[in-house]
Amino acid sequence: MATRIRLQRHGKKGKPFFHIVAADSRSKRDGRFIEKLGTYDPTKNPAVINLKFENTLSWVQKGAELTDTARAILSYKGVLYKNHLLKGVVKGALTEADVEKKFDKWLKEKEAKVQSKIEGLSKSAEKAKSDIFKAETAAKEARAAAIIEKNTPEPEEAPVEAATEEAPVEAATEEAPVEAATEEAPVEAATEEAPAEAAAPAADTTEDSDKKEAPSAE
Questions:
Q1: Is the N end or the C end of the chain the one with fewer CB atoms within 10 Å?
Q2: Which of 9, 55, 10 is nearest to 34 (CA)?
Q3: Residue whose C-alpha is closest to residue 21's, from 63, 61, 51, 62
């Protein structure tokens, strides 16, 4: 009987949740299984994996087949790496102490990477939240400014324009008498000088009459 480590789907629609099981390869995907080895929740970031490490390693050492997803999960948790190191012990390349030392070092590096990823995701989430808050604040201020501008009455500019247009008319009205006086001045001067010019010919007539009378007296 071939044994396969695979996933069984559970959870609601759109929120999958999987059980990691060791089952007969001939059974249905969600059918009977031999042993439940852990759970896998892909809806979280990073994904949450709970695994019975030693039991799973035992099934791998016995030659259990792995689906692609199960292989990725076991590699992520270090089951496959530990199995590789134990094969080195069988071949005499490593001791059990070397295996534990190497595996502990790998675990620490893996945990550091996971923790770094979690911190990075947390910072990204906080930044995204801050950006959303700033955008919402700016939108509210813009809407408030638009409402104030809409409700503010426009200033009346008509009286100012009327006063500006009437100013030249008033100036022209005030200057009209000055122009009239300027035009009438020559006429009055001509009228006053007219009698003087008329008197001059009268004097000439008297002198001519005297001249005419003088020969007759002789």
A1: C
A2: 55
A3: 51
CATH of domain 3-92: 3.30.1320.10
Q: Which two tokens stand for residue 51?
A: 């695994």
Q: Judge whether 53 and 79 are in contact, CB under 8 Å.
A: yes
Query: Angle 192-194-196 (CA atoms, 0-180°, nearest 5)?
Result: 95
Task: Tell me the domain boundaries of the chain.
Answer: 3-92, 95-153
Q: What is the pLDDT of residues 82-129, one digit of tens each?
A: 999 999 988 888 888 999 999 999 999 998 988 888 888 888 878 888
Q: Which residue has the tokens 């006429």?
A: 187
Sequential DSSP letters for 155-168: PP-HHHHHHHHHHH
Q: How far apart (Å, rounded) are the C-alpha atoms in residues 191 and 201?
A: 17
What's the token pair of residue 129? 């939240």
Structure tokens at 30: 């969600």
